[in-house]
Amino acid sequence: MKLPLFLLLLLLGTAAALHVGNDAPYLDSQESQADLSQDLEGSGEQEGESVLTEEGIQSEGEQVEASSCQDDFEDENAMESDSDDLDENFQCPRAEDTVEISGGPECKTCRYVLVHTCRRFAGARKVCRRCYHGNLVSIHNLCINNQLQSLASRSNQVRVWIGGRIKGWCSRFRWIDGSAVNFSNWAHHPGCGRCVSLCTRGGHWRRTRCGRRLPFICSF
């Protein structure tokens, strides 16, 4: 009787081990899903910024997954400097290379200038600062967006630079003049890149490589 009892205990132990082994992957999966949910819920927003996803910009404070775009280090550098725009060679645009308009009812004191000369993002920002004592334009409502799209359509280019950029691994969108992010008009698929351009047809915004040469709009 001792031998059958020993075999019975051995079989019971083996069955219990197999049961635990089958449950383990399920438990691991539950824990992984819980960790992922906590990561998504815990990603906060700073004032004046919003997180960019592949479907567009979400409102301030909303917790969403960051964009899957992989922006390279070269594009990060191009956002801050333009190697072709050396100080000794710097020149302001000629009058014939620009179109200037005044703001509408939404901002009667605003002035905008479209510069036809194509520059990288950093070079365009420098022109706005040095020549017009302003900055690349920020957009805060649909009326201004439509007005600037109409202006941009005179450039004979697909896109023009505006003053938006993407910062950090969390893909936070900001205006370089420091103004609040209170309006967005992203294309359904905004693309990749750390700088932002305005489409001359439709007026949507797209992420664009900062080293690309485009016309641009300054506000002052």
TrEMBL record:
<dbReference type="Pfam" id="PF00059">
    <property type="entry name" value="Lectin_C"/>
</dbReference>
<keyword id="KW-0430">Lectin</keyword>
<dbReference type="InterPro" id="IPR016187">
    <property type="entry name" value="CTDL_fold"/>
</dbReference>
<dbReference type="InterPro" id="IPR002352">
    <property type="entry name" value="Eosinophil_major_basic"/>
</dbReference>
<protein>
    <recommendedName>
        <fullName>C-type lectin domain-containing protein</fullName>
    </recommendedName>
</protein>
<keyword id="KW-0732">Signal</keyword>
<feature type="domain" description="C-type lectin">
    <location>
        <begin position="110"/>
        <end position="219"/>
    </location>
</feature>
<keyword id="KW-1015">Disulfide bond</keyword>
<dbReference type="InterPro" id="IPR050111">
    <property type="entry name" value="C-type_lectin/snaclec_domain"/>
</dbReference>
<dbReference type="InterPro" id="IPR016186">
    <property type="entry name" value="C-type_lectin-like/link_sf"/>
</dbReference>
<dbReference type="InterPro" id="IPR018378">
    <property type="entry name" value="C-type_lectin_CS"/>
</dbReference>
<feature type="region of interest" description="Disordered">
    <location>
        <begin position="29"/>
        <end position="69"/>
    </location>
</feature>
<feature type="signal peptide">
    <location>
        <begin position="1"/>
        <end position="17"/>
    </location>
</feature>
<dbReference type="InterPro" id="IPR001304">
    <property type="entry name" value="C-type_lectin-like"/>
</dbReference>
